[in-house]
Design goal:
Blueprint lengths: L2 H13 L11 E4 L6 E5 L4 H18 L4 H17 L1 H12 L3 H21 L7 E2 L6 E9 L2 E5 L7 H13 L2 E5 L5 H16 L9 E3 L4 H9 L3 E7 L2 H13 L3 E5 L4 E5 L5 H13 L9 E7 H16 L19 H16 L3 E3 L3 E2 L9 E2 L2 E4 L5 H4 L6 E7 L2 H9 L3 E2 L1 E5 L3 H8 L8 E4 L11 E2 L2 E2 L6 E2 L8 E9 L15
Parallel strand pairs: 5-6, 5-8, 6-7, 8-9, 10-11, 10-18, 11-16, 15-16, 18-19
Antiparallel strand pairs: 1-2, 3-4, 4-23, 12-15, 13-14, 17-21, 20-22
The chain binds nicotinamide-adenine-dinucleotide.
């Protein structure tokens, strides 16, 4: 038994989630760290999936009548349980998704933060009071629980995306059915076990408020097509969203799509290059370039290009690559062989288009023959080709050059995705143009920080092929509730709106 297998088993035992592992299971879960098989699971059948959705629906019928501050108490308890198991959960993220340990712990912290946010929110699900045009009338809007929320998640944030959805859904009065990525089901089972601990401390919660569905995209499709699922929140590739969005729309369901990004950083002549190098390196190389918000394009002014690229290459050359569980490692593995192949073919295409490639080679294959560690790549391009416009989920940073800021903004926006963006500049005119209506078209636009590492307080998501959904902070909770407009007549007359007469 390798160290990864042993540690995974210990963590699952500790959390009470080891029973799900079954020798006869057809779904094999591997660690990106060494390729070892961490365990096997039995996917849910069509009938079981149907029962799970039915149970979630019954849970919602009860939960919607529990006052929202009381619902918030359950989320507060969940936050406490997550705090108690932060170390174990963070390690499990490293083991199953390959993130460096500090990012694994950061992901758990993000879950704790969203629980805190949702607890406060449970007392702030405000509606408006609106002036009525009719005398003796009052008009207001109220927000009600929506129903079952189906949550489909990607491998790269195997816990946090569930928590963003679930903490909000629970205070909103909804129940949750979660289909995690087939690459990271163990982290989901661990979260479920921690959730059960919170439920055990909460006196009056209905059973089945949160359930995990194990399986591949076929199980996900059943969730997508089921009209008992009022909101389908799906995080993953644009390819997935293209299938899921129209299917949910066909049954007039609600969908919240969080899809791919192709995020750029603009560096202007006035930029603080020390800051820019650190911000770009973290955003381009962190999580081995496997964040939806990873920086994939650098659009740099010709006057600072040479200096910046030289400094980035130097920073890249000194990066500690290796086992993500070891303190000091900054770059862990890619998730699997397909991901490695995707990276190599993107580099070949970029080269064929005239790109100059630095890095990108496989390393550590003697120590880890079944895992895929790479040097991060910098590719200098003389134009934005289709390869650059495509999201390759790996640490590749394409470098493009500009002369006028308008040109930089146009390049930044000239991709199908619209998730995250940033500018490094000390010129207020430049930064304000970037943030203006004719600036970045992304859901996230930052100044003097990188494109990744968002806080939970803001609404998270992007437009165009990123799907248009918003999760997490701000007023993202509204997606998890239904709105009713109420008009109340307390007069003895029945005036009709717009002066219409209809006397009978
Ligand atoms: P993926 O699209 O391969 O899979 C994501 C999930 O969708 C998995 O659970 C998968 O089983 C499910 N799925 C796939 N096809 C489906 C279908 N037809 N019906 C129902 N479910 C289906 O993505 P991945 O490789 O796990 O993750 C990487 C991608 O996710 C990248 O494109 C990344 O940018 C994106 N992502 C986006 C965000 C965001 O918030 N915008 C966050 C994380 C990841």
């Amino acid at each position: 038994m390798t160290q990864t297998v042993q540690l995974t088993r210990e963590i699952l035992e500790r959390l009470g989630a080891a029973d799900a592992l079954q020798e006869a299971g057809t779904m094999r879960v591997r660690s990106p760290i060494d390729g070892a098989e961490l365990g096997r699971l039995v996917p849910h059948t069509t009938e079981q999936t149907d029962q799970i959705i039915q149970r979630a629906h019954s849970a919602w019928l009860e939960w919607r009548n529990v006052p929202s501050p009381r619902r918030g108490e359950l989320v507060r308890l969940l936050g406490e349980e997550l705090r108690a198991e932060k170390q174990a959960l963070g390690q499990l993220i490293s083991l199953e998704a390959g993130k460096i340990i500090s990012e694994g712990l950061g992901e758990v912290q993000e879950m704790i933060d969203i629980c805190d946010f949702a607890v406060g929110l449970s007392r702030q699900l405000y509606g408006l009071t609106i002036a009525s045009e009719r005398p003796g009338h009052r008009m207001l809007e109220t927000w009600h629980p929506l129903g079952v929320v189906g949550v489909i998640t990607a491998f790269n944030f195997p816990m946090a995306v569930w928590s963003w959805n679930t903490a909000l859904a629970l205070v909103a009065g909804d129940s949750v059915v979660w289909k995690p990525s087939e690459k990271t089901p163990l982290t989901a089972l661990a979260c479920q076990a921690v959730f059960e601990r919170a439920i055990a401390r909460f006196a009056d919660a209905p059973a089945h408020l949160n359930q995990v569905l194990i399986g591949g995209h076929d199980v996900g499709e059943q969730l997508v097509d089921d009209s008992r699922v009022a909101l389908l929140s799906a995080t993953g590739s644009t390819r997935m969203g293209r299938e899921v969005g129209p299917r949910v729309a066909r049954r007039f369901g609600r969908s919240l799509l969080e899809l791919g990004g192709n995020n750029a950083v603009i560096v202007t002549p006035s930029a603080d290059l020390d800051l820019a190098v650190r911000g770009i390196a973290f955003a381009a190389v962190g999580t081995a370039g496997q964040r939806c918000t990873s920086t994939r394009r650098l659009i740099v002014h010709s006057s600072v290009r040479e200096a910046l690229v030289a400094r980035l290459k130097k920073a890249y050359s000194g990066l500690p690559i290796g086992n993500p569980l070891n303190q000091g490692t900054l770059l862990g593995p890619l998730v699997d062989k397909d991901s490695f192949n995707g990276m190599q073919s993107a580099l070949q295409s970029a080269q064929a288009d005239g790109g100059k490639v630095f890095g990108g080679e496989r390393v550590l294959q003697d120590t880890y023959p079944n895992a895929y560690y790479v040097k991060p790549a910098i590719v200098e391009m003389d134009r934005q080709t289709n390869t650059v416009r495509h999201e390759t989920f790996a640490p590749i940073l394409y470098v493009l050059t500009y002369e006028q800021l308008e040109e930089a903004v146009a390049l930044q926006n000239d991709v199908p995705q619209g998730l995250s963006s940033a500018i490094f500049s000390n010129d207020v005119r430049e930064t304000e143009v970037f943030l203006s209506a004719s600036g970045s078209d992304c859901g996230i636009a930052n100044v003097n920080i990188g494109t990744s590492g968002a806080e939970i307080g803001g609404a998270f998501g992007g437009d165009k092929e990123t799907g248009g959904g918003r999760e997490s902070g701000s007023d993202a909770w509204k997606a998890y509730m239904r709105r009713a407009t109420n008009t109340i007549n307390y007069s003895r007359e029945l005036p009709l709106a717009q002066g219409v007469k209809f006397d009978v």
